[in-house]
Amino acid sequence: MVDFIITKVLPYFDVVLENVKVTRLGQGHINQTFLVRWPAGQLVLQQINTDVFPRPAAMLNNAYKISRHLIAKSEANAYRLQVVAPERTQAGELFLDLGEQGFWRAINYLPFSHTVEVVNSVVEAEIAAKAFGHFAVSLSDLSAESIDDVIPQFHHLPGRIDQLVAAVAQSHPQRLQGCQQWVDLALGQTELLQQLKQVEAQLPLRICHNDTKINNMLFDKRDMSSLAIIDLDTCMKGYLMYDFGDMVRTFCSPEAEDSTALDQVHVREPIFAAICQGYLSELGASLSPLERQSLWLGAKVMCLMIGIRFLTDHLNGDVYFPVNHQGHNLERAANQFTLYQSLLEQQDHLSTYLK
């Protein structure tokens, strides 16, 4: 792959090929990401997964609109984070389409950037939540209608449940074996579905990040302050409760999302409190009362929904999320459902942080 990138992809970009080095970057599930360095420069190169993003040009146009908006805010001293922006090809395009050899794009690399995979402290949680809140409020004056839906119904729990039902019906018995308890849990959430339908109908559409994992916020390794929000690929119209919920899902457990130590998977109250403090300190004044109330619902829905997506992929034969071994997606699903159960057990107490 590295030789292919150097000989077939990089010549289309403003890269000096002499002494160039290409290394893999990050631990993303979907796209393949590489860091390209040469003596006088560096950039991040990605091969876009067009099975997941069937309209990659629309996705990159979204990212371009958002980055331009944030750059303008930054120049007006109204946005304090750095901005990840596209690096155009030599022909001035936002992407390179090589057909069967891949759909490629480049973005600027931010020096001193550092990612965290598991939140280790309330300080990390609050810094990241504050950054995601600042990102969201800074996009509040960019029309949500100006952004395309590159993955329609991405955060749509009823649709994800329908996909699970179909997967159960078509699954090989060996795949279904060992996960019936999780299927029953997922399909038994009718009350949550009814509540979600009622609340969503009253919420304003906003531009949301839609993938607010801790590793999509870059820390500055020099002082561990917030540096930038990255991975704008899933930025679409949506509801802020899902961005909040994905932070809860990915920040609050002391275990990685594929950990099989289920007895250690739980919502850490101090981390949850730090998320609320950081996020609301940026967005609190701009949230409607119902939006603020919806955040707790978003936390529950995201843990459940990602568990359903992992479980569905397991039953379908691991066709969406890359796996490292047999049963990997089932392990991820069990992890997320366990986190969901922890939220329910602490609901009366944790929800008070959002009052």
UniProtKB/TrEMBL annotation:
E.C. number(s) listed in UniProt: 2.7.1.-
Gene Ontology molecular-function annotations: transferase activity
Domain spans labelled Aminoglycoside phosphotransferase: 22-256
Domain of life: Bacteria
Keyword vocabulary terms for this entry: Transferase
Top-level EC class: transferase
Designated name of the protein: Aminoglycoside phosphotransferase family protein
Organism: Shewanella youngdeokensis
